[in-house]
């Protein structure tokens, strides 16, 4: 959440940030609730001080009339205390409810815009492949090679599911090993987190807003949510903890299965495995020093680009506009891979700078070395690799005329083959 002191001091800046994010929040109503709760709290503190003073006098005086008088005064104070406590609870609940609705504010350099159509392309990298044949769609290739089976998955689980098979499975494991081998050298701690979260933990990460709630799978009997990304359980793991400043940044590289309803994608990408309810992903996460968030964000983006460059998949980098930013994010970039069959780029990576928005909710702080003062850390996350989408991009960009698929050079040592070919398959 935002710092209420910041909201009091810069209400117009907060209103402007909410406008840019297309989030309707009643800031004036919030400030009024804040003013009233503080006034009531001050009155409660005064009553407590009066009661403490009266108690001391009662304990020390021998004048019975004085004692009776003070006892009556304390009874009256108790009545006022009960009344004010009820008022405080009402204003506190209203205040907290409104605070939870305020998103993280976009950085000033976030492009103005309403949705993904207003995102800004920063650069396009690697030459697109040329073919002396009409490139096929990844699913057409994968079905002929028996790598992906969505028909049987639909029979078993419904739409937006798929079976990954044969060399497709080996390709997933090769990608996982490749990414971990590449990024562990950069100071990441490998982690496999739980994929179920308590509602309060998911809410504190900023991923259970009114907009996000329809995306989440909820297990009512156990009161647990399925994670939509490893960011959520990794971000919550240090709730109510304190880092030493020397231990920042604390970087994690997490592998997990992710679950999303795709509630906002009705009718979009219903064919294949591009947009599914269950998928595997490797996620980067960092708890870092507040003064280094922009530097850390660029580091995450460079890691994502490095992965794409080593895989030699054509891609472009896109800066996300304010209206398309997620609830907790102040800034974000996407990487989009080139899909020859569609003749366009499709998202494969995202990276977000959430500043101290999540860590305030989760109460994750660090102790400054110079004066031992406690401050909130900042949190950032980024896709190291969305496995299914990476497989799609590899199949499309490495397809050959005979229907086979070449294996990217950096993956060959993991797969022990140079090409997926149905005629030569040993699986």
Task: Describe the structure concisely for a colleague.
This protein is of the alpha+beta class. It has two domains: 97 residues, Serine-tRNA synthetase, tRNA binding domain (Helix Hairpins, Orthogonal Bundle); 305 residues, BirA Bifunctional Protein, domain 2 (2-Layer Sandwich), CATH 3.30.930. The protein has 13 helices and 18 strands.
Blueprint of the fold:
Layout: H1 4-9, H2 11-20, H3 27-60, H4 64-100, E1 120-125, H5 138-144, E2 148-149, H6 150-157, E3 163-164, H7 167-183, E4 188-191, E5 196-197, H8 199-204, E6 218-219, E7 224-226, H9 231-236, E8 242-244, E9 250-259, E10 278-288, H10 293-311, E11 315-319, E12 331-339, E13 344-353, H11 357-362, E14 365-367, E15 374-376, E16 378-386, H12 387-397, E17 405-406, H13 409-415, E18 419-420
Parallel strand pairs: 4-9, 8-14
Antiparallel strand pairs: 1-11, 2-3, 5-7, 6-7, 9-10, 10-16, 11-12, 12-13, 13-16, 14-15, 17-18
Helix pairs in contact: 3-4, 5-12, 7-12, 7-13
């Amino acid at each position: 959440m935002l710092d209420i002191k910041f909201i009091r001091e810069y209400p117009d800046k907060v209103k402007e940030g909410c406008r840019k994010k297309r989030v309707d929040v009643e800031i004036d109503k919030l400030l009024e609730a804040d003013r009233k709760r503080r006034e009531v709290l001050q009155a409660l503190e005064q009553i407590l001080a009066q009661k403490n003073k009266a108690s001391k006098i009662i304990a020390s005086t021998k004048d019975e009339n004085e004692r009776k008088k003070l006892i009556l005064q304390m009874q009256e104070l108790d009545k006022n205390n009960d009344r004010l406590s009820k008022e405080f609870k009402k204003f506190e609940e209203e205040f907290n409810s409104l605070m939870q609705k305020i998103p993280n504010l976009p950085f000033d350099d976030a492009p103005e815009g309403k949705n993904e159509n207003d995102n800004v392309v920063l650069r396009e990298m690697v030459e697109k492949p040329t073919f002396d044949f009409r490139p096929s769609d990844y699913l057409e290739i994968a079905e002929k090679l028996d790598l992906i089976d969505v028909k049987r998955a639909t029979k078993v689980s419904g739409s937006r599911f798929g079976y990954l098979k044969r060399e497709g499975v080996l390709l997933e494991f090769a990608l996982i090993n490749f990414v971990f081998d590449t990024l562990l050298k950069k100071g990441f701690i490998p982690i496999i987190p739980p994929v179920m979260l308590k509602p309060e933990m998911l809410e504190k990460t900023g991923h259970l807003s009114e907009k996000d709630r329809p995306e989440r799978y909820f297990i009512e009997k156990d009161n647990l949510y399925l994670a939509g990304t490893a960011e959520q359980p990794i971000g919550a793991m240090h709730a109510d903890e304190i880092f030493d400043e020397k231990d920042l940044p604390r970087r994690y590289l997490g592998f997990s299965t992710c679950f999303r309803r795709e509630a906002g994608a009705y009718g979009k990408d219903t064919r294949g495995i591009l947009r599914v309810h269950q998928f595997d992903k490797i996620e980067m996460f960092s708890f870092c020093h507040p003064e280094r968030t922009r530097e850390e964000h660029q580091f995450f983006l460079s890691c994502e680009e490095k992965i794409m460059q080593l895989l030699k998949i054509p891609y472009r980098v896109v800066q996300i506009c304010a209206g398309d930013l997620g609830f907790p994010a102040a800034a974000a970039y996407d990487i989009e891979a080139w899909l020859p069959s569609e003749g366009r780029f499709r998202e494969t990576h995202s990276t977000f700078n959430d500043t101290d928005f999540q860590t305030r909710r989760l109460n994750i702080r660090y102790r400054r070395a110079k004066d031992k003062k406690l401050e909130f850390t900042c949190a950032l996350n980024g896709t190291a690799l969305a496995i299914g989408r990476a497989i799609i991009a590899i199949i499309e960009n490495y397809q050959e005329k005979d229907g086979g698929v070449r294996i990217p050079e950096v993956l060959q040592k993991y797969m022990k083959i140079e090409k997926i070919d149905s005629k030569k398959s040993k699986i």
